[in-house]
Amino acid sequence: MKKFLSILLCLAIALSLGTAALASGEPSGSAESAADPAGVQVSGGFYYTVTGGEATIVSTSDAVKAAPIILFPAEVDGYPVTAIGASGTAVVTNASGWVLIPEGVEAIGDGAFYDLNRTPGWSFPSTLTDFPVTALDSCGGVFYAAVCPAAQAMGAATGHTVDTAAMKTQTVNGAVYNVPGPLSDARLENFVIADEAASGTGAAVDVLDVPADRLLPGAAASGAALPADLYDEVADMSGEGAYRYTSTMGVETGTWYAVDGTIYEMVYLSQNVRYATKAQAINAIYEAEGLVFGQDYDLIRLYNYVHNYANGPRPGDFHIYGCYLYKAVGPFVAGAASNLDWERAYEHVIDGVDQPIQGDVATLMVQAGAPVWVDKLQSQNNTIAYGPSEAANFYGLGSSVLVDGGNSTDYKITAFDDIDFGTDDAALYLTDPTIVGTENVLYAVAGGTAYVTGGRYFGCSSGGHGFYVGMGGKIALNSDGFIDKDGRPVTDYDTLKTLVQDRPGLDLGTAVRTELTEDWNAYAAPVFNDASAEPDVAILVTADETGTALTTDTGGGVIVANRISATTYGRGCAGVYSIGGDESYVFLYNPTATSSPSTPT
Fold first, then answer.
1. Contact present, 30 and 37 (Cβ < 8 Å)
2. Residues 476, 481, 414, CA angle at the centre, nearest 5°?
3. Which residues on adjacent β-strands are paired with residue 51?
4. What's the rounded Cα separation, in Å, for the pair 260 and 369?
5. What are phi and psi of 403, to 5 degrees?
6. CB–CB of 201/319 below 8 Å?
7. Which sign does the torsion angle of CA 402, 406, 409, 414 carry?
8. 356 pLDDT exceeds 80?
């Protein structure tokens, strides 16, 4: 009888649970459905996101890109792969192997593949239906598309050779591939990339056991004006998509930093400790270093950047927890110089111990507010940019000097009459600087403006340019007399006749070959001929690939350059490179420029 009653009780409980599950919308007899994993995941060298239980491949490791046959998976960690590419981000760039996409993939996104001009061929599945003509930018190779009408149509539209001959299939790890004829004898399992350890840029270490919601006694000076956001949580920010600009300006900082008309000098830096609030940072640094807010420093920049990304300036699993402390100097500073411990070339090792410095430290960063003046800046900046993809080009990440106006939404200059050098969201007046770096020399972005007089400049990195604007940034170089009362560059012929001067010499700046070291992230160094230089001449030298002298990029901007002597070395090193649609303007007055496809000797 007891056994019978027990069975009845169990049945009653089961029915009760089933009814409750049905009432809550959950499947009867099952646990709560597993949620999609948040953020970017990685498996076998493929980075992916999950939505609705389906995976989209968003990036790939260097090992995948280097493979002679790139086999996209049909499943990652139990999730079916239905798409490749998201938000226009290139999943594979500059690869030269075959690309085989398995059955099950339904869509290839805009810009998913870029610059695969040496790829022999592609194999597409019958399931692929969403395949825009913009999916493969600057990519060659034969389309093997016997079972894929979408690929046949796309290949015809883009001028690719389309092969519709029948293909054999091979199954590898549950993925079914249609094998092109030239690969019919290949054993595809030999080209599967094993799981790799993510290349990290420093995971967070445990913070000291200090409160985040109150200040410790002595951590702040009596009467100090505390930040209004002292106890606000600083959440982790991912850096892709719409967040690229904000993330760039968050992870970027400077040895010298200016905002609201005040220049600050950095006194403390950490990039691998995650602080939840500024209060927690104040407490922890007080206990560890004895630094007191309002006495030793009076400005905190705190930003938590986390993103798992395989492309971009540096691939890896990023955890950049930047905490930067500054002491106010004033609106003017003379002789400001780099800090070579902070503006280093690499994550580095001393006595076998990984050091926390990771990069993203400019010599000078200026943000929105009243203007500031810097005289005779001495910059030797070797920072390597870590952060969102293309941020070095689009927003200036890693530049030696960065001027950010903060106006990332209303910045476009669509006509000459829109140009106005009299209204600046941020303004830097820079006189006679020496800027020697590897990424961009000077970048103005999002309404920021730099007024520059004289100086010597050098940049040497693949993609490291000279004077650079994006998103409505403006640079005026030796511009006295060349900008009219309305804030526009002078174009009136009669006025221009009065502004003609002798052009500066060609031999004022050159470069010589050097070695890559821990402290010098370049294969060339500058040589400036000071004896023949005049005070109002800007001498610029760039070296290595795509080291353009004057550049406009995404969102455009304006460069006014007078009396510049520019010398560029290396393949693709133009004098002027201007993109960014109708919003880009470059005005050259009394210039001298020479470009050499060869590299420095």
1. no
2. 50
3. 54
4. 4
5. -115, 115
6. yes
7. negative
8. no
Residue listed under structure tokens 């006509």: 415
* Cβ 233 vs Cβ 377: under 8 Å: no
**Tens-digit pLDDT profile for residues 181-212:** 999 888 898 888 865 443 334 444 445 578 99
Q: Provide the whole-model pTM.
A: 0.69
Closest CA to 558 of 545, 534, 576, 539: 576
Which CA distances in Å does 353 have to 271, 320, 564?
15, 18, 45
The answer to whether the CB of 137 falls within 8 A of the CB of 113 is yes
DSSP 528-578: E-GGG--TT-EEEEEESTT--SEEE-TT-EEEEEESEEEEEESTT--SEEE
| pLDDT at residue 448 in the model | 95
* 37 Cβ neighbours under 8 A, 6+ residues apart: 50
How far apart are the C-alpha atoms of 413 and 473, rounded to whole Å? 10
Reply yes or no on whether the pLDDT at 317 is more than 70. no
CA angle 485, 490, 492 (to 5 degrees): 110
User: Which of 434, 432, 443 is CA-nearest to residue 466?
Assistant: 443
566 pLDDT tier (thresholds 50, 70, 90): very high
Instruction: Categorize the per-residue pLDDT at 1 as very low, low, confident or very high, splitting at 50, 70 and 90.
Output: very low
Local structure of 491: helix, strand or coil: coil
Could you tell me the CA-to-CA distances from 223 to 193, 293, 330, 446 in Å, in that order? Answer: 59, 10, 20, 36
Residue 27 pLDDT exceeds 70: no
Give the separation between CA 600 and CA 510, rounded to whole angstroms.
Answer: 8
β-strand pairing of 332-334 with 372-375? parallel
Pairwise pLDDT comparison (117 vs 165), residue with the higher score:
165
Say which residues have a Cβ less than 8 Å from residue 542's Cβ, sequence separation at least 6: 441, 458, 459, 460, 464, 465, 466, 548, 549, 566, 567, 568, 569, 570, 573
Instruction: Report whether 92 contacts 116 (CB < 8 A).
Output: yes
- In Å, how far are 103, 174, 186, 412 from 190, measured between CA atoms? 19, 15, 8, 51
Helices (H) and strands (E) in the chain, counts: 7, 44
CA distance 69 to 97: 5
Residues 40-67 pLDDT 10s: 788 888 888 899 999 999 888 777 887 8
Two tokens, residue 473:
């940034």
The number of angstroms, rounded, from the C-alpha of 514 to the middle of its chain's C-alpha atoms is: 27
The answer to whether 304 and 237 have CB atoms below 8 angstroms apart is yes
Task: Reply yes or no on whether the pLDDT at 87 is more than 70.
Answer: no
Residue 84 in contact with residue 108, Cβ under 8 Å?
Answer: yes
End-to-end CA distance of the chain: 99
